[in-house]
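Preliminary data (for renewal application), manganese (II) ion complex.
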Amino acid sequence: MNPWLDVRDEVADALKSGRGVVALESTIVVHGLPEPTNLEVARACEDAVREAGAVPATVGVVDGRVVVGLTPSELAHLADPSTKAAKLSSRDLGLALGRGAHGATTVAGTLAAARAAGIAVMATGGLGGVHRGATSTYDESADLTALSKTSALVVASGVKSILDIGATLERLDTLGVAVAGYRTSRFPGFYLADSGFALDWRVESAEDAARAFVAHRAFNASAMLLANPIALASALDESLHAAALAAAFAEAERVGASGKEVTPVLLAEFARFSAGASVAANRDLVVANAGLAGDVAARLAAQ
Ligand code: PSU
Ligand code: MN
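Predicted structure:
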């Protein structure tokens, strides 16, 4: 037993009885999306996992404990700006625990909690990765190293389009992270269905993905990324995307964003510049990813 971990009853029962479980991160809710959409999205993601026949387990840190299966009121408390919840990567957990800290977990932080709880599937919107200009800033998300050393199937719409996508794909290769497109041979571009990069592998169904993951983990300690493109009807217009990207970089430079604030600042400026269109796109893609993850988790449990 891990004394810092609270796996809530519904999740623990599901794991014990071999049902599918999907870990969901909380940074997207607390630091990635504006109010009140953030809590609506969190609820919609949990509903999508359930509709697919699996049990959702939203992860966060409450009162210095890692909770796997946050209640709606706990999540609302974390999302309340007055709580000042920290953004916690895996390396932050040890220091945050036992001090009554409140925090949201990133993909890296959520994967660490999921592994401790025995959950093999997680969903998010877009992974973190190599930032543009990383050759001088060294800014590369800890999500990548977490994926390299965690046996999990992660459903995401690729990596966030604010990143250097080509460099991130090279790093995923180096780190031994398997990448498969879900019904596509193109790497998704988060708010856009196609990032402009091709993929070597694709799968046609959740069943296919579950089977490939079982074989992957027999030979690798790393994760498999199931890259699920945003639905075309929800994708951002390409020229709006390009303009918003430029505005977001200008804003990040103006405020001198660094470290863990870089991504939230870029996403917030994207939302402001696109008059909320990026928020609607982010909502649609993450809910779809949660549903697909639920489907894969249910099939994995059945195998
Ligand atoms: N996906 C989204 N929105 C987000 C994130 C993912 O659609 O805000 C979060 C995840 O928690 C991811 C984090 O781990 O962004 C990456 O942050 P950074 O670039 O600082 O590593
Ligand atoms: Mn960073």
